[in-house]
Write a structure and sequence with these properties.
heterotrimer; A mainly alpha; B alpha/beta; C mainly alpha; A: mainly alpha; C: mainly alpha; 0% strand
Chain lengths: 218, 205, 244
């Protein structure tokens, strides 16, 4: 299992798309929003939590369609399915690798972008914390979506259509945790709910995703 | 140890291809599957490997005892030969890839990225993967595609050593593998006859 | 005693639905026409909301069926996953677009109702938002059905999407409540004592709800019959090709 994690991380680094692309997209999005909305710092501070969360969500989505598609194309998925590792484990590990290369860097980079958007001071810690707690759910839910569409030629767009509605609860609770803190309120309930979604998704969705993969392989 | 298949039927895309197939492979034996294109060789091998369910029939050998190799080698182009092989060894809980590299004559290429290999070299790497699975029965789909005569002979030697060590092999191929001792099973007689009421979707007729 | 599962056989299902569909369609038409005429022309306008309130006779039944259609899809998907009855999977497939249309009707009638009441066509109120999200779930479900060629693969994958989607749709509902308390009026019909609606309104509303339920049944049966015929046509064509 560790070997699979190391391989996926290595591939992400070698291909150059892993860390860089998602982060770059996140940066561009947070630069574009003020350009579209206007430079008023009050407005930006108000919408910053939402923008940062939506940006993180879209950046996560960006690299998801390749999660199983590449392994499907080169035959690795067949070989992994016949290997001693259960397919559920393969899904969980690949989601973890996706999170390490996408969600984790996003969470760490978010405070810098928070400065750009004039995020109020007390919201910085909840921002990082909510992204750290919430982005794993995005990766696991995305892995489920990628598993559903792995055999399809133009699966990327369809996958977005399937995955984005599933992202709604995570987005709402995650962004609420930040914006409540930004307004000086207590955001810990939202933070706990975000963590709850991550825990539930990580526990159950690998089974659903492995089921979908088995169907797509047969 | 042996593998026994009894009265197997399998289908592709809802269409039954093979039915009533029974055969056995014992330790030290190689069985070559032959049949024209579309006779269901690939479908049969995928069914045996547990990638798709059989319509009916019994397979005594669990998929965990088989090493499956298909047309695609499952190589990552940005990883080196050694890294690719080490990965599959680790997945199967085996240590050491040196023997596999030597056997498939890949030692000199160990540090090269898979994307810079020729088609035949890639194939050799894909076949070297079999040696690091530590599994008893090799289930191979057209293993010698894009191999030159020398490499085919090299591969035949590897298979022979696997058999001598108590392993077994099931190969689907059109080409002569240089394994004269292998039994040959022609799949043509087992082609599924379409029953008048059809074996699939019959509930809809 | 014949088991219910006998109707999972397409031939039996076709025979049953052959008469059940027109019956429920005509009953639905009768109930909806009666309910709407009664509701629109023979009830008094609300003293606060005026005649606008009468859109309730479309809004509430369609909203009800929007949710029930998803529930039916969920049950049909479970039956497919557990018992592998093709009719069940095809019924779930047929329910998708119908549920999506019901959701859309509920959203549009809601907007028409909301405009004079709240002074805005759209309000990010938790109920409206939940319905919009439900609509997105329907879209994804329909898109996945249409994207996959192999019928059994599509049935399996959409069934698992429906299961997972149900959990997340429920979560989204709570997320929307958490997110905004909203200005939507409370539930129109309540089981609790001290109901807020007069029988003069309730009677035609119940008629419309029963009518919509029957309409949904008729549409699902029609859709399932179409799907079964499509599968039959495909099976026949495959047989011709295989014999050639």
């Amino acid at each position: 299992m560790i070997a699979l994690l190391i391989r996926d991380l290595r591939l992400a680094i070698r291909a150059g798309g892993g860390f860089g692309l998602g982060l770059g997209f996140f940066l561009i999005l947070t630069v574009l929003v003020p350009l579209g909305v206007g430079p008023d710092t009050g407005t930006l501070a108000l919408i910053a939590p939402g923008i940062l969360w939506v940006g993180a969500l879209l950046a996560c989505l960006l690299s998801l369609d390749r999660l199983f598609a590449l392994d499907h194309e080169d035959g690795s998925l067949d070989l992994l399915a016949t290997s001693p590792i259960p397919l559920e484990g393969v899904v969980a590990i690949k989601a973890l690798a996706h999170w390490l290369t996408t969600g984790l860097p996003l969470a760490l980079a978010a405070p810098v972008l928070g400065i750009l958007l004039n995020l109020p001071g007390p919201a910085f810690a909840p921002l990082v914390l909510s992204l750290l707690l919430g982005t794993p759910a995005l990766s696991v839910i995305g892995a489920f979506g990628a598993a559903l569409t792995v055999g399809l030629k133009r699966g990327g767009l369809l996958m977005s259509l399937l995955v984005l509605p599933l992202y709604v609860p995570t987005l709402v609770f995650g962004a609420q945790a930040v914006s409540r803190a930004a307004q000086g309120l207590d955001g810990s309930t939202a933070l706990l709910l975000t963590a709850g979604i991550t825990a539930g998704s990580a526990a159950l969705l690998p089974f659903a995703a492995a089921f979908a993969l088995r169907i797509n392989l047969r | 140890m042996d593998m026994r298949v009894t009265d197997l039927a399998c289908a592709r895309g809802g269409l039954p291809l093979i039915e009533g197939l029974s055969f056995a492979v014992a330790s030290g034996e190689a069985l070559v599957l032959r049949g024209p294109n579309g006779s269901g060789k690939t479908t049969l091998l995928r069914t045996l490997a547990g990638l798709q369910p059989a319509l009916k029939g019994e397979i005594t050998c669990p998929p965990e005892a088989m090493a499956y190799a298909a047309h695609a080698d499952g190589l990552k182009s940005t990883l080196t030969v050694a890294e690719n092989l080490t990965f599959w060894a680790a997945i199967h809980g085996q240590a050491g890839i040196g023997a596999a590299l030597t056997a498939m004559n890949l030692t000199d290429l160990a540090g090269r990225q898979a994307q810079h290999l020729s088609a035949g070299q890639k194939r050799r790497l894909g076949l070297a993967r079999l040696l690091v699975t530590g599994r008893w029965l090799w289930v191979l789909d057209e293993p010698t595609v894009s191999l030159d005569a020398d490499s085919v002979a090299l591969f035949a030697g590897v298979v022979r050593r696997h058999l001598a060590a108590g392993g077994a092999a099931l190969l689907a191929t059109h080409i002569d593998l240089g394994l004269p001792e292998a039994r040959v099973l022609d799949l043509t007689p087992y082609r599924a006859a379409l029953p008048p009421d059809l074996g699939f979707d019959e509930a809809f007729l | 005693m014949a088991s219910l599962w006998e109707y999972a056989n397409p031939v039996k299902f076709m025979r049953l639905s052959g008469w059940l569909m027109p019956v429920s369609a005509w009953l639905a038409a009768g109930l909806i026409v009666t309910g709407l005429v009664w509701g629109f022309f023979f009830t008094e306008a609300d003293y606060r909301q005026g005649a606008t309130v009468k859109i309730i006779f479309l809004h509430v039944p369609s909203a009800l069926m929007a949710i029930n259609a998803w529930a039916m899809m969920l049950i049909a998907s479970l039956i497919w996953l557990v018992r592998r009855h093709h009719v069940s999977a095809l019924a779930a497939k047929a329910a998708g677009p119908i549920g999506a249309t019901m959701t859309l009707i509920a959203l549009i009638t809601g907007a028409i109702w909301g405009q004079p009441m709240w002074g805005t066509w759209w309000e990010w109120d938790p109920r409206l938002t939940s319905f919009l999200i439900l609509f997105l779930f329907y879209l994804g479900y329909i898109a996945l059905w249409s994207a996959i060629e192999d019928a059994d693969t599509a049935a399996d994958l959409t069934a698992i999407l429906c299961l997972v989607g149900s959990v997340f749709a429920a979560l989204s509902r709570y997320a929307a409540l958490f997110w905004n308390q909203g200005l939507h009026q409370g539930a129109s019909l309540s089981v609790a004592p001290g109901t807020r609606m007069d029988w003069a309104y309730k009677a035609p509303l119940y008629l419309c709800m029963a009518g919509f339920a029957l309409l949904f049944l008729a549409l699902v049966l029609a859709g399932t019959r179409t799907e079964i015929r499509a599968r039959r046509a495909r099976a026949l064509m495959t047989r011709e090709r295989a014999r050639a």
